[in-house]
Design a protein that fits this description.
By secondary structure, the protein is mostly beta strands. The chain has a single domain, classed as Kelch-type beta propeller (Neuraminidase), CATH 2.120.10.80. 12% of the residues lie in helices and 30% in strands. It is built from 5 helices and 28 strands. Strand 16 and strand 17 form a beta hairpin. The N and C termini lie far apart (44 Å). Keywords: Signal.
């Protein structure tokens, strides 16, 4: 029998081959004519919302015969502290969630941007497999269902979904296994669990330039090198000068400003900005204005030297808001219900977008990564719940930047 290291080496060698194919396929994708649905997204006017009739995910929910209903059923895929990510190489918005005793299903759902329709990419592992005690992986070798929080990202250069951490079924324990999913083959790969962040409330974002994922945990900042399948800690928050400002629990959302290679984490009073290239915290350099005044003074009342005051409290204090980088406008656009909040990075100023046609409130336990920027169409997608239609928000008019980013 092959040992684990041999299996991993072979699998990551296969990823290198897949990367070459993926680059070619991505070029073919970009050259393919847009469908009518895709054209409609490109042609949306600036600062407008569009709701897609008949696009409720519930029509694709796994049937009861799998025995994974839990307390909430399929509704928990979005309601139970879970997120999603945009698989640009496949033009699919992927949603994965559930976990604890809310829902035991580990299936993945995909909204196809070419057709405007949902599909269930995989079937859930049967309930009899799950109820054995909260293992990850399950006895069938697949990942257990979990609250995914903001622990999902899409690895563009290998066309894989990345998943880290979460609260698994049925008991709610944490996990530190790194999972990779191939949407084309609909297969999972267990990349290991040693020396990695895990548990609740992780916030991840893909650094395309570094071919890595940056993960914000409560007590530290981590980097996952995709090609080497290796983890390293970038910063620990247990000691000063980073403690106690950055030791923030609860549920947050992360995104990367790819122009400056800055990793941002917001939500639950978090205000964290990490310079990836320089390897240092630069939050104080990014004090913003506009919107509602933000402050961490109440949380840090015994540490006045660590207080940061800025703008945009609507997002920094929100519970797991939607938050992603608009590469064409060079802005972060965030959403927690109603009008989105837009942070112009050139001026460091927040402003409100349009609320006309927007869902008035986010899902009860947060939006996480179910709000994503789609660069191919220069538009944001929102999956707010299993029982609501899919929404799109256009920040600025037109299609993508001419360089395709």
């Amino acid at each position: 029998m092959k040992d684990a290291r041999t299996v991993l080496r072979q699998w990551f060698s296969a990823l290198a081959i897949t990367t070459t194919f993926a680059t070619s396929a991505a070029s073919e994708d970009s050259a393919a004519p847009l469908t009518a649905f895709e054209k409609a997204l490109v042609e949306m006017p600036a600062e407008s919302w569009r709701e897609i009739p008949g696009s409720q995910m519930k029509a694709e929910c796994a049937p009861d015969r799998f025995g994974v209903h839990g307390v909430m059923g399929c509704a928990a895929v979005t309601e139970a502290w879970s997120g999603g990510t945009y698989a640009s190489g496949h033009r699919l918005m992927l949603v994965w969630g559930g976990g604890h005793n809310d829902y035991w299903g580990n299936e993945i759902y995909a909204f196809d941007l070419r057709t405007g329709r949902w599909t269930r990419l995989t079937d859930p592992s049967p309930g009899d497999v799950v109820k054995g005690g909260g293992a990850d992986p399950l006895p069938d070798g697949k990942p257990n269902s979990r609250h995914t929080y903001s622990g999902l990202a899409y690895l563009e250069h290998v066309k894989r979904l990345f998943a880290q951490g979460g609260s698994v079924s049925p008991g709610g324990g944490g996990t530190s296994v790194t999972w990779l999913f191939d949407p084309a083959q609909k297969t999972w790969h267990n990349a290991g669990s040693g020396g990695r962040p895990g548990g609740y409330g992780l916030a991840a974002a893909y650094d395309k330039a570094g071919r890595a994922v940056i993960v914000r945990a409560t007590q530290g900042l981590w980097r996952y090198d995709v090609d080497r399948n290796s983890w390293s800690q970038l910063a620990g928050f247990g000691n000063r000068p980073l403690w106690p400002r950055y030791e923030v629990g609860g549920n947050k959302t992360a995104a990367i400003d790819s122009r400056r290679r800055l990793f941002w984490s917001v939500g639950n009073n978090d205000f964290l900005v990490w310079d990836i290239a320089r390897g240092q915290m630069v939050s104080d350099d990014w004090r913003t204005s506009g919107g509602t005044p933000y402050s961490n003074a109440r949380r840090l009342k015994s540490y006045p030297d660590q207080v940061l005051n800025a703008g945009g409290a609507e997002i920094h204090d929100a519970h797991a808001p939607g938050f992603d980088y608009d590469s064409k406008a060079d802005q972060f656009v965030a959403w927690k219900g109603g009008a989105p909040m837009i942070l112009d990075l050139a001026t460091k100023t927040w402003k409100a977008g349009s609320a006309t046609g927007a869902p008035p409130a986010q899902a009860r336990n947060g939006t996480y990564g179910r709000w994503r920027y789609l660069p191919e169409y220069n538009v944001f997608i929102l999956v707010n719940s299993v029982t609501s239609n899919v929404f799109f928000y256009k920040n600025t008019a037109g299609g993508p930047r001419r360089d395709g980013s």
